[in-house]
TrEMBL record:
Domain Aspartate/glutamate/uridylate kinase: start-end pairs: 2-277
Protein name: Aspartokinase
GO molecular function, one term: aspartate kinase activity
Keywords attached to this entry: Amino-acid biosynthesis, ATP-binding, Kinase, Nucleotide-binding, Transferase
Origin: domain of life: Bacteria
Enzyme class, UniProt record, top EC level: transferase
Organism this protein belongs to: Flavobacterium ichthyis
Length: 416
């Protein structure tokens, strides 16, 4: 079985959904598991619903209406008859969403977040599945929450591999077209959980691992993995073949074309990953597989925006050594900060982090009790894998550099 993943960009409108069908017809779909994300920017739109809900804002109904109108617009582009059952199914899903908000008693933001954002994937897969049926393409709609079991870390759930493996082995039908949701799972009480933003690639890898898939293909709006994000770097070039290790490094440093958690399960079973264009499905794209000889021979540029650079120094001029560092790391972990760079000297320690969950204010208060805390918000972190002189010049030009670090293969620069 092959696993395909289509992200938000691929199903952002009715033409996108039609194109997914065209891609499947080009590459075959007899024995395929299709993982689909929420349409376009739906997850962001649902985040706004949640924000309005918690702030008890008068804008809440408008925020819900926007999500609803967007999806009904897509339905109208796919089905000419509003009596099709998918219209009433969507209406009842939105009624469920509103009912949840009306009756919810939980003050837990992360819990509520998962119960609401999950509608994005549930709705998108319902639309795609019915559209395929309508076009005569039989398929099996699966509720991923019956397969991927997790702990209760809402918004960043950890997969229970044993239960997940059992569910998938027992209940995923082979030799058919299966359609399921990316990004979602469920906990032991069957409440919905999510695997972290952009987590649908990871969902594809989880299924691939558990069914021993032949391959995974993630279909993108770019030709494959390139040596830079083409949005920010002119002349980005396609990497035809890279190793799992290189892909993990690129994803870890912030090449958003692949979610970093995707590679490890695939690498463990040596399942090849293809990153291909949904615009030109006949092109080979990038293949990610085993092998040290597959390293790119050109510098790869990665930029992460909206990072935080924190520098801590001791209040009493004492050294920042093992015990302080271990305390600092345990706090970073506790406040769910993602660390992408570390540098230390005798009495200071700098760290470049991403504050995904908006916890910096609280963390700062704790840190200030023990350290002098200096910080820059909204900095950019540039990473160059396989750097050379010319590559570093390109990145450094016209920028104020706050920190620079060089290892054998990788150069990192934090800029304002
Ligand atoms: P999805 O629709 O699957 O969620 P994303 O938008 O998350 O897709 O990922 C595709 C985007 O990743 C591309 O449009 C591109 O701007 C960005 N990107 C970042 N780094 C790279 C890279 N090294 N190669 C290709 N694309 C990249
Ligand atoms: N819809 C989710 C998000 O936007 C998951 C994904 O797209 O991968 O984060
Ligand atoms: Mg995405």
């Amino acid at each position: 079985m092959r696993v395909f993943k289509f992200g938000g960009a691929s199903v952002k409108d009715a033409d996108g959904v039609k194109n997914v069908l065209r891609v499947l017809q080009t590459v075959g779909f007899d024995d395929v598991l299709l993982v689909i994300s929420a349409m376009g920017k739906t997850t962001n739109a649902l985040e706004l619903v949640i924000k309005n809900y918690f702030e008890q804002s008068a804008e809440l109904p408008d925020a819900i209406a926007a999500v609803k109108e967007y999806h009904f617009g897509i339905l109208n582009g796919l089905f000419d008859n509003e009596n099709h059952e998918v219209f009433s199914m969507l209406n009842s899903m939105f009624a469920d969403l509103e009912y949840f908000l009306k009756t919810n008693k939980s003050p837990n933001y992360n819990f509520v977040y998962d119960q609401i954002v999950s509608f994005g994937e549930l709705i998108s897969t319902t639309i795609v599945s019915h559209y395929f049926d309508f076009c005569g393409i039989k398929n099996n709609w699966l509720d991923v929450r019956n397969f991927i079991k997790t702990d209760t870390t809402y918004r960043d759930a950890v997969v229970n591999w044993e239960l997940t493996q059992e569910n998938i082995s027992k209940n995923v039908q082979k030799n058919v077209l299966n359609i399921t949701q990316g990004f979602l799972g469920s906990d032991e009480n069957n409440f919905t959980t999510t695997l972290g933003r952009e987590g649908s690639d990871y969902t594809a890898a989880i299924f691939a691992y558990c069914i021993n898939a032949e391959s995974v293909t993630i279909w993108k709006d770019v030709p494959g993995v390139m040596n830079a994000d083409p949005r920010y770097f002119q002349n980005a070039a396609l990497l035809n073949q890279i190793s799992y290790r290189e892909a993990i490094e690129l994803a870890f440093y912030g090449a958003t074309v692949i979610h970093p958690k995707t590679l490890q399960p695939l690498q463990r079973k040596e399942i090849p990953l293809y990153v291909k264009s949904f615009v030109n499905p006949e092109l080979p794209g990038t293949s990610v597989s085993k092998g040290a000889d597959l390293e790119p021979h050109l510098p790869c540029f990665i930029v992460k925006k909206e990072q935080l650079l924190i520098s801590l120094s001791s209040l009493d001029f004492s050294f920042i050594v093992e015990e302080n560092i271990s305390e600092i790391f345990s706090l970073l972990h506790q406040y769910k900060m993602k660390v992408s760079l570390i540098q230390n000297s005798a009495i200071s320690f700098s760290v470049c982090i991403e504050d995904k969950f908006g916890n910096f204010g609280d963390l700062k208060n704790v840190l200030q009790k023990k350290f002098k805390v200096a910080y820059n918000q909204n900095v950019s972190l540039y990473t160059i894998r396989h750097f050379n002189e010319n590559a570093s010049k390109i990145v450094e030009e016209n920028k104020e550099i706050l920190l620079k670090q060089i290892s054998r293969e990788t150069m990192q620069i934090v800029t304002k």
